[in-house]
Amino acid sequence: MSTSAAATTDRSDFRNVLVSGTKVGVVTGVAVVAYLVLARFLPSGIPRDAILGLLVLATGALVSLLPGEWATARNTEGVAAAAAIGLWGSVAFMAIDIILLRPFKAYPWTWDAIGGGSTWWYLPIWWMLGTFLAWMGGMLTAGRHARGPTTLLGTALLVVIGAVALTAVGKLAGCPVMLPVLAGAGYTLSLAVLALVSLRRA
Predict the structure, then answer these.
(1) Is-contact 133 86, C-beta < 8 A?
(2) How many whole angstroms separate alpha carbon 175 and alpha carbon 164?
(3) Residue of 57, 80, 158, 196 with fewest CB within 10 Å of its CB?
(4) Distance (Å, rounded) from C-alpha 76 to C-alpha 48?
(5) If you write DSSP's letter for every residue of 65-130 in order, what string do you get?
(6) What pLDDT is recorded for position 110?
(7) 130-174, pLDDT tens digit by residue?
(8) How many angstroms separate the CA atoms of 136 and 130, rounded?
(9) Burial (CB count within 10 angstroms: exposed 0-12, middle 13-18, buried 19+), residue 3
């Protein structure tokens, strides 16, 4: 197979899914540690919230769009592979979380208290979110490539701009959540809308 042909072929082989998903898990783990460090040592206020919000957006772009790039998502099979990479990435992060973060009590008690003291309540939600983000990212990647050459940076900027706009609307509307959480929700919604629009135009 020629190099040009290989570059446009969906990569859904099991090895690629596992290796790429593990990378996503490591990226997630590094981002979570960075978030925890910044949240602990930066003085509270708007600047800290803005920095944490930017970190959330950057991490969202990486974990949602890299799976589509690594799966070379161009068709249904590549989009499915991207979703599988996202799922395995969330499982890989779970291992990092349980082995490294939990023993050091990295999270506040209120996080566990939501689930009645259990550290397992959020794992299925995390798996679903990781899969959903990578699925939407793969769909957006495939849709944009169907209309012509594009880059990861260009796609990421498109989603982030939409997320920033939605975050601003949420803040102006008085949404009673922390800015980083609002940024994450804005990113997820922006990604999903753009993915569905790209699917219609593909």
Answers:
(1) yes
(2) 14
(3) 196
(4) 40
(5) HHHHHHTT--SHHHHHHHHHHHHHHHHHHHHHIIIIIGGGT-S-HHHHHTTTT-SSTTHHHHHHHH
(6) 66
(7) 999 999 999 999 999 988 888 999 999 999 999 999 999 999 998
(8) 10
(9) exposed
Residue 178 tokens, joined = 């922390």
Per-domain residue ranges for the chain?
3-201
The per-residue b/e assignment along 100-136, b for 16 or more CB within 10 angstroms, e otherwise, is ebeeeebeeeeebeeeeeeeeebbeeebebbbbbbbb
CA distances from 41 to 36, 44, 63, 101, 117 (A): 9, 9, 25, 17, 26
Work out the number of other CB atoms within 10 angstroms of the CB of residue 80.
17
